[in-house]
Each structure stands twice: as C-alpha cells, then as structure tokens.
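Sequence in, structure out.
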Amino acid sequence: MGTGPSVYEQGVRRLLASYRAIPTDGTVRLAKKTSNLFRRREHNPHPGLDVSGLTGVIAVDPDARTADVAGMCTYEDLVDATLPHGLAPLVVPQLKTITLGGAVTGLGIESTSFRNGLPHESVTEIDILTGTGEILTASPGGAHSDLFYGFPNSYGTLGYSVRLRIELEPVKPYVELRHVRFTDVDTLVAAMTRIVDEKSYDGEPVDYLDGVVFSADESYLVLGRQTDERSMPVSDYTGRHIYYRSIQHAPAQTPKRDLLTIRDYLWRWDTDWFWCSRAFGTQNPTIRRFWPRRWLRSSFYWKLIALDHRYDIGDRISARKGQPPSERVVQDIEVPIEKTPDFVDWFLREVPIEPIWLCPLRLRSPLPPGADPHRPWPLYPLEPERTYVNVGFWSAVPVTPGKPGHTNRLIERKVADLDGHKSLYSESFYDVDEFDALYGGEHYRDLKAKYDPQSRLLDLYSKAVKSK
C-alpha cells in the first residue's frame, strides 16, 4: 500500500506547483471532492491545491514501529499497510475515509484514546505547507515546535500536512469484546472511571473502551481485549448483521461476549456509520438483503448526504408529510468525566436523539519535550492528567421557528457550562470572544501572523463558525 518515496516526491512537486498557480489574492484551499466535515462552505472560485499525489503510505519501519505517511492518506489505507506487520496506529478514528492529516489538523478519537490520547499525540514529526508556500518540518524540539503544538485543531488554517511520521503499536489478530449493561449513566461512568485508571475490569485487561447509551435506563460499556486465541466463532458485521445492535442484551445476563478480527474491530462502526445508516433504510432487513455490500460503508453514505445537501431531499420529503424542516445536530463534544452524567441526563431530557456514543480520553503522559504543562495543545486545551469523555450524537431535530441553530446553540452553552469543548467539524455558533476563549485566541493569532502573514489561508473563526 506504500506510495514509495519517488511517487511521494512527485506529489510534493505537484502540490507546490498548484500553490504557485493560485492568484496571490485568492484563498488557498485543498482541491478535494469529498470531506468528512459537516459544515457547508462557500464555493472557491480558484483552483485548489493538488494533493492527488499525497494519498499513500510512504514507508513502514516495523523495527522502530513508525510509519511515514502522506497527509491525504486515509486510515483505511494506513491500516492496510501496517496490519501485515502486526502494527496499527495508536488511535484509529472510526471511519475509513478519515485522513491522517485531517485527524491531526482536526481531531480524531477512538476506543484506545483512554490510554493513547488523540491522533496528533502519536505524531513525532510533520511537514506542513504553510500559507507562505514553504514546507516546514515541525517537531516537538525543533525550530518550529510552536507550529507543531499549534497545528492540532487548526483545520488547515495554519497550513496543510504533507508528510507525518507517527508511532505504531503492536496488535494481535483478534479482539474479544465484553458488552456490560448498566441501568443508569452514573453507574456506567463510575465503572468507566475505574477502567481508565486500572486498564482492567473484573480481573481482565481492557485494551479498548467505549460505550453506547440507548436510553436513560439502558447503556453499555464495550470492553475490548487483544488476543491471539480464536476462543469463539468470529462475528462479521460487514453485511447482514449490524454491530451496534449486537451490543444489546437482557438486563439479567452476564456481560455478552463477542470476537472480531482486529481489522473488523477497527472498522466496526464504518459499515453502518455508527447507527446513521438507518436514515437511508439500510437497516431494514428487506432492503439490506439487496443492498450491495460495497455500499455498506461511510464513504457511500457521504455521497447520499452530499445529494441531500444539494437538493434538500430530506426537508422536501418532510414538507410533503406536513412536517417541519430539520436542524442537523451532528456533534462530538468533550466534558470532564465527572460531569458526563450531568451532560447525558440533560441531553436525554432536552434533545430527542438516541443512541449516543461515549468514548473516554486522556492526554498521553509524559508530555512531549517542550510542551506547555498546562496547555500542551493550545488550540484545544484539554488538561493533562484529567479524564474527559467524548459524547457523539449525529442526527436531526425539528427546526425551532425563528431560532436558527437553536438546539446546537443550547448544546454549546451546556458544554461550556460543564468546562468542556466541542469539535469543529460541524456547525458552530459561537461569538468571537467565546470562540477565542475556547480555541486558542491570542496564541492562534500569533501563529497565524508568523506562518500565514498574508492570510492566504482562511482564519479559524471564519472557517469553523462562518463556514466560508
């Protein structure tokens, strides 16, 4: 799956040539047909950056447990290159078409984040095309360490990753799962807190940890343990069977067990885009029987979403049924673990969306050299040595007349009240001062002035809130 150095070098040359072809008064953007963002953006009248040669793995070093990866390489291709060596990235976000560069300049998370943090924390070196047209190498102790630490959560407004060197970790062929049921969120969070601290549950190690809340009185922790043993039949959730439905079991049962290959575990959420495929009817057994397996993946659902955005298909159907249009509520937020029950209880009362996903995370320890011990990643300032929980919810609610973005604004206020943050891949409604307080403020402006002095790239507020 590697592109090889020569193919990569050709890709870099095309990238730089495309940068020079953009008028000096034009905004620099990627020439991408697809995106994992849920923000609408204005049409760019100028040609974008040619990143077509930056889509693969350059090299894997099994002995050093590292990989050099082009910025537009998808995690699907990255995993396919590392698994033959018995290795995987330390954090593999849930969807196959998320790119490594996207997860680093944005934010990614998964069930290893309680022990491995976020994707940018396993980067040891990164080449970045800045707004000046230079490709600079940023690392924790290098000349551009400020850019290294400021790059995460900058969403391409400080530059675009060209090459990343990342750490890898050994993985075993299978993941054995335990689905542990809880009847209230407080008890679930208490158990999650212990697992994060002890990396075990009921005497067994825990290598992967996330959870699903189906309702106020039905929620689960999913505990994964790497194993070489094929101790039971291996399940397959890439076709007729639906992974998130497999988690549920009766209250009186002991934890339900399951076994997946490591590859199928890493992509367990992609087949049905968590549970969002139900919006397209593909969870209906009759429809699923005839739905091509190659279309059971997030990249195809993205195409359907793009059509809906272009033609407002969903709202048109709702109007014919006499129903109001919908407000998209597609967000991932983080709150401190001790405040997670407050948020979930509030959310279940106020927002008619279920299920919701829970994923704990802690920044890695020790911090890289030169990191600010209080704000190591200043554009998304989670506290070291503190556990947070990512809460993900992806659906829609009826529009509140006369109040655009009403539900999303309520969520933003509640998250801020609980000392949390939200990811910026979807719509945001913050005013400038509130946004500055949450996402780097003066620190970001200093980096912007240094690495994009002519403002060739959009600024973060314009991109994340104004959706330019």
